[in-house]
Amino acid sequence: MAAVRAGVDIGGTFTDVALETPGGLVTAKVLTDYAAPEAAVLDGLARAAEAAGLGLSDIAQVIHGTTLVTNALIERRGARTAFVTTEGFRDVIEMRSENRFEQYDLNLELPSPLVPREDRYTLPERLAPDGTVLLPLDRAEAEAVARRIIEAGYESVAVGFLHAYASDAHERLVAEVFAALAPDLPVSLSSVVSPQMRELPRFNTVCANAYVRPRVEAYLGRLAERLRAAGIIAPLVLMHSGGGLMSVETARAVPVRLLESGPAGGAVFAAGHAAAHGIARALSFDMGGTTAKICLIDEGRPKTAATFEVARSYRFKKGSGMLIQTPVVEMVEIGAGGGSLASVDAMRRIRVGPRSAGSEPGPACYGRGGTEPAVTDANLLLGRIDPAAFAGGAIPLLPERAEAALAPLAAALDLPVTHAAHGVTETVDETMANAARVHAVENGRDIEETVMIAFGGGAPLHACRLCEKLGIHAALVPPGAGVGSAIGFLRAPVSFEAARALFQRLEALDAALVNAALAELETEARTFVAEVAGGTPAEARLVAFMRYHGQGWEIPVPLPDVRLGPDDGPALRAAFETAYRGLFGRSIDGLAVEVTNWALTVATPAPPPPPVATDRTGHNEPPPAGHRPIWEAAVREMEQAAVLPRSALCPGRAIDGPAAIVEDETTTIVSAGFRAVGQPCGSLLLIRKEARP
Amino acid sequence: MTRSIDLQIMWDRLIAVVEEQAQTLIRTAFSTSVREAGDLSAGLFDAEARMIAQAVTGTPGHVNAMAESVGHFARIIGTATMRPGDVYITNDPWMGTGHLHDVTMVTPVFRRGRLIGYFASTAHVVDIGGRGFGPDGRDVFEEGLRLPVCRFADAGEVSRLLLDIVRTNVRTPDQTVGDMFSLAASNAAGERRLMAMLDEFATDDLAALSDFILERSAAATRAAIADVPPGAFANEMWVDGAEAPVRMAVTLTVAEDEILADFAGTSPASARGVNCPEVYTRAYAAYALKCAIAPEVPNNAGSLAPFRVRAPSGSILAAEPPAPVSVRHVMGHLVPDVVLGALHGALPGRVPAEGASALWNIQLSVRTPDGAPAAEILMFNSGGTGARPGSDGLSATAFPSGVSTMSVEATEHVGPITVWKKELRPGSGGAGRTRGGLGQVIEIAARDGHDLWINAMFDRVDHPARGREGGADGAPGAVMLADGTPLSPKGRQQVPRGARLRLLLPGGGGYGPPEERPAEAIARDRAAGYEE
Prior knowledge:
The structure holds two protein chains of two kinds. Chain A is α+β, with helices and mostly antiparallel strands. Chain A contains 16 helices and 33 strands. In chain A, strands 13, 14, 15, 18, 21, 22, 29, 32 and 33 form a nine-stranded mixed β-sheet that branches. Chain A has a six-stranded mixed β-sheet with strand order 3-2-1-4-11-12, with helices on both faces. Chain A is globular. The two termini of chain A are 44 Å apart. Chain B has two domains: 3-218, no CATH class; 352-532, no CATH class. In chain B, helix 1 runs antiparallel to helix 5 and helix 7 (278-293) packs across helix 10 (335-346). Chain B is globular, with a radius of gyration of 23 Å. The chains are: A alpha+beta, B alpha+beta.
């Protein structure tokens, strides 16, 4: 029989399993077990296998992503870590960027460094920007510091020296010293974990890696053991933050690459549907209970970035987290979900989030003790959610509790409760729309030409209104949206990005030097990919990070080849100017151009979902439907809307909004301006009525 | 019925519109201080030239100053002559944001042929001619090219004459002119988004929205002021200044619904470019009051109006033309300390102790051994902030400015220098129940026989940040060589070949009696080595 593969995503609340079997996709959802995450994984796998009529030993591959690494950094549950750095630079991770991320708060608190000052050790040594030695590292001094660290009983060690991206000689020496004195103590080097210029993100990254490493190693060890004991001899493969797969061995050495692997799976899930429908530019929109995530997808590939911020400590505010340098699917996270709480500020404006009722006590309408109004309460009062059909009827909702929770807010605004509820959902939709619009602008994209891919429990409720606000003409609601990340894992390619700082002015481009470095990067990346993919052919892509001389930040410039010719300077400049114009609308004559970093990615071709026909009109009789009044945000009134189960909208059937399409995990709201068309692949396509051909 | 909800939603949208306007500018500007430090501002004004929305960016001094500028444009250009496609410009320190390096550009917005408002943006350009960015000019004419309020584009036609004048007068013509186009483009980006919003909400005017925003903001600010005990509260503070110590004096008169900050008694203007035009003083004074009293209210003409500020004409905080003003931020950054000190009289337990406050911008010139220019390097660095009533000050963190420091590795790629040390300065935070933030120690040397010059403009060397309520002063700053040889904190000096420059950045003042500091806080400081 054909290979059965399993995708397993450990999220903050649920552990999701998606099993790809010859008979189709089977999914399971179990509560995450914080004490023993592997137990929930096994439980979920067993349930899914049972539902599919399979044994656990039939599973040929387990692909795993997890939020455990992210949570360890947020909750500061990691190993006791020592950081060894250059003398004179003990406080880089504490001084951060020396700014305040909130301009007007006199009582602002900065997040404390991951490794406290007393655990940071320095050594006299110094490299120049080109890697030459300005002050040699003395082995005896390194040994003395290593002994102090070993005697103090640290569980993990991070090493980060200035300019180590240009030469790893001094960091390697420290690693050798530890290997000789304490072979079992894990040592992470910045020149391995993130060999790129800029000391703050590189040091943060190596410290985070060391901090989570013992826990991740232990967890992966236990998981492998449990899988084996359960008869799953299949290889375990891990999802990384860049949207690809890597081996367990790599994950153990560089666990920082597991950050955000769950949400990355969601983006891959959305990208797969975009590719299948031939959507060139998509916007993935994933809304859950506490946050919404937005990601741009171009040509079926989620947009990636070289850095991201983890563990934001202050209202999801940019700058309030820890800047980590690792290849990552670029997502904008907004503190807006079904549980986000609404309040009225000093200007008598409605504010929503980032405070959230979470799943406990949950929104007021859950009847579990929540008294403040949440977005779900507002949606309930606006008729968008059927109180008897929420979560397939498992959680009966109490509209009277929702109304009581919203009443004080309505009174403060001198509005009827329904209008206050409208204000709450409009505010949250506006917040998400604004974040999406700014993100598109930052990337030189016109958001109106994207198609939205909406998944997660909350997104289908809000997708149409968001499209109206953003000028987007169509949204796709794929099936299985509740376990999108786990399904995404099954669609991910095996990939590895190797990146290195190597500074070059284009007018003095040393192609031989660059090619030597690129060859090393490619060998490194291919080795990592082969660990998982074996002999599967994999292709390499090169991105150069370039800027005009005098600018402070680089832009990614995709290059056609992974090696340079001796006279490629002008071609590189042309590629840079094309990318620059794409982002900023113009290029500038007469300025020198330089390259700072090179990133080479080796990836197997993503298993392409077979292209599916997109039905934009529907042709069959409309399905039978009931009716109930639902708030129509565009006209600010209740309107009689069709209500039908999602199963009724089989391929080719269509229904004009206003309508609510109900399934166990969510409800898709089709506003009056849209029409929903059932797709051959099981998706719903929401399409603007006036946009129909 | 849902009208007030619509107005709220449009208000949120306007904040996003000006944010997009600012992002467009940040991402295309050449000036280091725009990109790295957020030294820019962007905002939307109504037809009466009242600011209704503003992007939250790095430098409050900038931000509030631009709020006043559009009124000058409306008056000087004349609304009757304005046409679609027009863009106006100035860098006049007294019409814009306080020094020649800041170029402000204003684009009138028309809807169905009627003027409904303006987008304005300001950026610090790389070069504006003259002596360059520094305190050495003896009048504003030495500081560079000064453009009056005039037309940059007339009905879509950019003035070639103006571009030629700028190109001829600055050292970096492509970048300075490029930044001007960036400003115009950012206004245009804002305008496009505003038009889409007006379409969506089927309206052709900003007046009702503007009234709503300004009334709500003013009311919230006045309500917050009503909680401040009325009366007059005075404070004075001496700082180093340029050629002589400077007295900053302020009296806050708190009325029921407004506060007047009067800087009578402040020292006269300096002969060096540290002077502030009054607009810049107003910006930082209003910023300090807003932080302490109404931090949640968005910045606009309504929330700024209840804070009235005046300074005696000709003083260092209200310098008149042709006084030099190039590095007006050095005095401007100290304004919040003196204002917050006065406010402490009205609101004990609310405001922090004094901090390092004025940025330590390190400007270095590196020359090759045979004297040729090798590199110009600018680094932003911060000392410690004052202790707060309930928490320690922030170490090595900018306040009131919001700038970021640059990576040492990136800086060393710019020119042949080595930063040998950049680390917290133990013992520099003023003792107290809560401790002042620590300053930092920086050591820099030229590489490979190069020569190194520093253009110093550092404050709080002779006048440290004072503690509050019995808290000790923060450590003063110091400028020296690594062997202890002192250097002057002001002016251009050579670091002898082979020697290392050492800068000790000031710490913040402490708050409350040091003997009341909790034992666990003391133990934490000791473990981390925050003490000497």
